[in-house]
Amino acid sequence: MTDTALVRRASIADAAAARAPSDVAPSLSACLLPIDGLDIAQWRALSERAIEPNGYYLANWMLAVNASAPGRTGASALAVWDSSPSRRLAGLAPVVSLRRAFRIPLPALISAHPYGTLCTPLIDRAQPEAAAGLLQAARTSGAHALILRESSLEGEAMRVLEAVALRQGLAPRVLQSHRRAALDATREAEMLLHDALGRKKLKELRRQRHRMEEHGAVSFAVARTPQDVASATEIFLKLEASGWKGKRGTALIQRAGDAAFIRRATVALAEQGQCEIIALRSGETPVAAGIVLRQAKRAFFFKLGVDERFAKFSPGVQLTLDLTRHLCADPLTTSADSTASPDHPMINPIWRDRFAIGDVLIPLRRNDPMVEVIHAALIARQTLRSLARRVVRGQR
After folding, report:
1. Domain contains 340
2. Are 197 and 171 in a shared domain?
3. 347 assigned to some structural domain
4. What CATH number is given to the structural domain containing 167?
């Protein structure tokens, strides 16, 4: 099943003959189409109404990824609309074929990876039945399974999708799961940091900060306007490339497509009030910078870059402490997702809440033997990747 074959329009009303039951409201329609064929204004409006936020599926972010990020272009979207005169977008899940994502030539769709580690679909909180439309659009495209990778497991979006699948006699399967650091931004920052790190560790961090001040007054700044964000993005890119990511060749600025994506995305989102660049300076010297996305009441900590010359002062930790204070002081922010690895040594001790993330396979037809083949192929791939990582660690 090629990506071209998958991009076929399909009406929910015309899909009654599909080999699986559908409880989709007849007032909804859905299709699979190229992601850049979506109306950006409707996409933005859906993000505001989403039952669960996902900063990495904001229109300006995902379209920038799709335009130039190497290996992440050419995505499609499962999209659901209502029957109102404006034909309002009610559900959205960016996807690619399993062949495209993992080189597995089997009939399945999988979440398009948005560079950030969160692929939770957008579902209108006022029309949760749009979840059924997403499954129906995937089914009508010819797919036998929909794989939602790196999605929120305990949020409202997955709850609605699982309920729809179970009503249709379909049993979702969690392929892998983990918990990563998150911040409860409703708490008072200093109390939160004291509970997380303890008096002794905070005293040591204050000592390091005072030592950093010997090189110049330490200041924390937040860039918000498009112009300031554009300048701050360049600072971030240089800092990220100056460290271990630059040595490994994985810094964003080292590939033209990645650099173009992040420059476009940060400025476009800043125009919507959905991106901030945070920076820590010693005098005039930037020592750490990070990118933070905003959607609804949640923040998403994308990436961090530090000047390794200041490593003995823990600049990444110092910046994260200031970010914690910044987010907790904002009455419009209730939580933040670190979007980090589950065992991240820097942020796990600071942000002690946890956010459940996982890959979920949703069959699209009852008792479908092809789903077992797809499941087995995914487990085999996961096992081989785990083995390869252990070998690499052993060699290091």
Report:
1. no
2. no
3. no
4. 3.40.630.30
The DSSP output letter for 110 is E
Sign of CA dihedral 337, 341, 344, 348: positive
Are residues 10 and 155 located together in one domain of the fold? yes
Q: Cα separation of 44 and 66, whole Å?
A: 16
Query: Under a CB-based contact definition with an 8 Å cutoff, are residues 324 and 351 in contact?
Result: yes
Tell me the Cα Rg of the chain: 22
> Phi/psi at 218 (nearest 5 deg)?
-85, 130
313-331 burial, b at 16+ Cβ within 10 Å, e below that, comes to bbbbbbbbbbbbbbbbeee
Alpha-helical segments (H) within 83-182: 98-102, 130-140, 156-167
How distant is the alpha carbon of residue 278 from its chain centre?
Answer: 19
> Are 74 and 202 members of one domain?
no
Contacts of 281 (CB under 8 A, 6+ apart): 216, 218, 219, 221, 287
Q: Is residue 88 part of a domain?
A: yes
Residue 115 domain boundaries: 3-179+356-395
Query: Does residue 139 belong to any structural domain of this protein?
Result: yes
195 and 91 in a common domain? no
pLDDT, tens digit (0-9, with 9 covering 90-100), for 76-119: 999 999 988 889 999 999 999 999 999 999 999 999 999 999 99
Do 137 and 202 fall within a single domain? no
d(CA 316, CA 318) in angstroms, rounded, equals 5
Split into its structural domains, the chain has a count of 2
Q: Same domain for 126 and 208?
A: no
Read off the pLDDT of residues 135-149 as tens digits, 9 standing for 90 and up.
Answer: 999 999 999 999 999
Instruction: Give the start-end residues of each E strand in the chain.
Output: 9-10, 29-34, 76-81, 89-97, 108-111, 122-123, 145-152, 173-184, 218-223, 275-282, 285-295, 298-306, 335-337, 353-363
- Average pLDDT taken over every residue of the chain: 93
173 forms beta bridges with 361
Residues 368 and 261 both lie in one domain = no
Residue 124, C-beta contacts closer than 8 angstroms, at least 6 positions apart? 46, 49, 50, 51, 88, 89, 90, 91, 130
